[in-house]
Amino acid sequence: MPLLEVENLRTSFYTRAGVVRAVDGVSFSVDAGETLGIVGESGSGKSVTCYSILGLIPQPPGRIDSGTARFDGVDLLDCKDNQLRRFRGKRISMIFQDPMTSLNPYLRVSDQLIEPLLVHERVSRRQALKRAIASLEEVGIQDAGRRVHLYPHQFSGGMRQRVMIAMALINRPEILIADEPTTALDVTVQAQILELIRRRQQDLGTAIIFITHDLGVVASFCRRVNVMYAGRVVESGFTEDIFGSPLHPYNAALQQSIPALHRKGESLFTIPGAPPDLSRDISGCSFAPRCPFAADLCRNSPTSLEEPIAGHSTACLRVLRGEVSDLRLKPALAAV
Amino acid sequence: MMVFLDLRDLKTHFPIYRGLFARRQIGSVKAVDGVSISLQKGEILGLVGESGCGKSTLARTIMQLIRSTDGEVFLQGKGFSELSSRAVRDARVDFQMIFQDPYASLNPRMTVFDTLSEAIRTRQKYRRKEMVAKVGALMEMVGLPANQMLRYPHEFSGGQRQRIAIARALAPQPKLVIADEPVSALDVSIQSQILNLVLKLCREMELTMIFISHDISVVKYISDRIAVMYLGKLVEIGPATEVVERPLHPYTRALVSAVPIPNPQLERQRQRIILQGDPPSPLNPPAGCSFHPRCPFAIEACRLNAPELAEKEMRRLAACIRVGEI
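Predict the joint structure of the above. Result:
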């Protein structure tokens, strides 16, 4: 049985400019101990999906229109704030993108680190501090006994992200949601942090939902991947299949537009146009206006995520009907 | 072939003062510390390095936005250090820059026409009607419809704004363009559009360009040569593909191996070099080779002497004494 099961989640923002359907019918599940990647461009709804699950969407203007998120028999989307608070920071926790802004600059690291312990467990400050120091050591901060009393500005970016990780894992959560945890960091530091998250995951058996826009990070880090576009999951499957045999033109095109997979001098494949305006009604497939394989059917018929191959789903109507099988856009790109 | 842009032992140091009344200098941040490199006409040089390594300061020093502490920039044999500020300003028409964040680098109160015509006027003045035609041509060149020239930046998406910023940089027909992380703020699908555009324009206009990025795969794709910077110094220079596929300097190796490849099979077989720690502070750089505290191959000699950037193979320079051994 999956640890977390999200079904048909819809989150909209009611703004002056209209109703923005940020997440439009998203379903997925996470098993205990696994790593699920959610990949998509900015505005694709990947963060809003996770914020909705944790009740972090500001309401108003946001509103969760429908959906369920079952975690241990409880629907997270339909429980009272105080009930949700028992899960948040205890059994499900989160790391945010920017370690510079997600720590409180006025408080010592020690105060911030022990807060989840004091809130969720019956421990004395002294015991909590001991565990805080141990948790800093576990994320590779040397001289933790002294450093725990410093302020966030006395740490570098990579160090602050380590503190965030220590804080998120201090209660040994069952699920860790990591929202672009390495985007603000240098590649060398990114490699350190990814390695650290991986190691802590093995120690604690935590399931991770990893939100990122970087396909490279997904390839190295995740077991399964959801590809999101315009508020919907358009493709979902095991990492090998998502990269080895894409079933949705958006995923295929995205991979073919990365410079890393191109030879020099050959021009990059580009996806024409820009993502759609989510405040307008989209009939049919949201990717159709930019899709080289789009037919009339794509513009009119509603799409849903189907599973043509066990464990690998797609929302592309033409792939599902068997009309398109080769999503490669240029033959030369096959050679990596 | 003639050298187009020549940097000779360029240094930019920022003094640090202490004390409110009796200010005295207690040290300096050596943001750029002895950079020498020359570019041919039409060449694209990729400049990579971690944040804080001095890439952007080097760019601004070449642009003469910051006057160098020591050393000299020559453009087509002409030096800048003796010029007066006024002369530098006139000469700067030849240098243009594209910045990272197209949301911050365009004036929100100027229409596209205002922005681009101002840039064109720095080179030559035209009458209104001619100017409209010039601006229209520029917009079409970067793939924007000319009938949108009276719109303001907020009416454009991030990718389109970056196209406007590119048009603005090319408007005065510059000799050298420095692009400082021009695609880092953009989404993957938009990134490739902008990279293709930059590459196409460079070829058509025979532009000489310095392309700064922290993403080594982007740099490999776009540039002819790559220069790797660490703590204010260049540690490796060489042809782009060779530097990425067979790096000589241990730092370049670590940098290349830290970039995740979007291919799960290759990713699993890879040998990773994970550097320990953060880059040291340029305020107080380590003695000897500045990379030695993080270098997995460091030996005693690395702690003592700073290695010189020297030619190790044909067209390939590296500042490491152990290149042949590792």
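Chain B touches chain A at residues 50-51, 157, 159, 187-193, 195-196, 199-200, 214-218, 220-222, 240-241, 254-255, 257-267, 272, 274-276, 278-279 (CB under 8 Å).
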